[in-house]
Design a protein that fits this description.
single chain, 296 residues, alpha+beta, five-stranded antiparallel beta sheet, three-stranded parallel beta sheet, 9 helices, 10 strands, 22% strand, binds guanosine-5'-triphosphate, coiled coil, GTP-binding
Length: 296
């Protein structure tokens, strides 16, 4: 949910329909609610409601459609345009949505996206996000909210959506445990599992995808590596489809590391990153092939 023009449909079309950011300016306003059903990991179906943000629709969600809109909500994702000139009105609607949620879906998680961060000068982004976060937390009262700064023009969108989806996957810890075992078997620095269509991070061998890595560790890993990979591979897949080629897998052998990205199950891809020069990519691929059965 969020005001009209805040960017809800744009992010949905990029993440779930693989559209590039450049096409989002052609999207029309959403009329009422548009629903998407995304199959995740075979048996988890994500039912995504994109609620058009024009005032007439918002008023209807909060009155006549209240029970329909706010019942059985797993996650409320509220999008605020960082440059909104109507923040008071945005916050009033947001507050009313929180009341609807507390009435019909008490246990729902709440994610707040301060969107279009690319419009803020880079040097001011951290300060702006801090200020907005404080304002939104205050407006949320006792409700715990997670605030992310996002833009369709960089990897921040993938970070926010991976953490949203992570709260909905019931067995993430279990998956991380299995990925850890697999990483050990491959002598890999890290193993990451991505969802096939969205390329959002499902689980990693290092546990929580938000985990920061000690910069002094032997193979210091970039803290933005997951969302950067999602963004790059999505862009690469789009390039492949423009050439009418299908993306299947990827192998990189660089001076200090090797990476193999390959299909794991029907709905997932696995990325194995190895810093041991004695390990051949063929061996990693063989391990992936053998492990597939376990992950199905
Ligand atoms: P309703 O359907 O009316 O509720 O609007 P919406 O929230 O779905 O907005 P929509 O996704 O249609 O986006 C409105 C405009 O914002 C489009 O022109 C997008 O290209 C633009 N936009 C979306 N995300 C971003 C972003 O991260 N940065 C910038 N600069 N523009 C964005």
């Amino acid at each position: 949910m969020g005001a009209s023009g805040s960017g809800k449909t744009s992010m949905r079309s990029m993440i779930f329909s693989n559209n590039p950011a450049s096409l989002t300016s052609r999207l029309g306003a959403t009329i009422d609610v548009e629903q998407n059903h995304v199959r995740f990991l075979d048996d988890l179906i994500l039912n995504l409601w994109d609620c058009g943000g024009q005032d007439a629709f918002m008023d209807s969600y909060l009155s006549a459609q209240r029970a329909t809109i706010f019942s059985h909500v797993g996650v409320l994702i509220y999008v605020f345009d960082v440059e909104s000139r109507e923040m008071t009105k945005d916050l009033e609607y947001y507050h009313d949505c929180l009341l609807g949620l507390s009435q019909f879906s008490k246990d729902a998680s709440v994610f707040l996206l301060v969107h279009k961060m690319d419009l803020v000068r880079e040097s001011e982004r951290t300060a702006v996000l801090h200020r907005k976060t404080a304002e939104l937390e205050k407006a949320s009262g006792d409700i715990t909210v997670r605030v992310h700064g996002t833009s369709i023009y960089d990897e921040t969108l993938y970070k926010a959506w991976s953490s949203i989806v992570n709260t909905l996957i019931p067995n993430v810890r279990n998956l991380s445990k299995h990925l850890r075992i697999f990483a050990e078997a491959c002598n890999a620095t890290e193993v990451i599992l991505f969802e096939r269509t969205t390329f959002l991070v499902i689980a990693t061998s290092s546990g929580h995808s938000d985990q920061t890595v000690d910069p002094l560790a032997p193979h210091a890993l970039d803290t933005k590596r997951y969302e950067r990979t999602s963004e790059l591979i999505k862009a690469f897949k789009q390039s492949c489809s423009r050439l009418r080629e299908e993306f299947h897998s990827l192998e990189m052998e660089l001076a200090d590391f090797t990476a193999v990205l390959d299909e794991m199950t029907k709905n997932t891809y696995i990325l194995v990153v190895v810093h041991d020069p004695t390990i051949e990519t063929a061996a990693i691929r063989m391990n992936i092939r053998i492990a597939r059965r376990k992950f199905e």
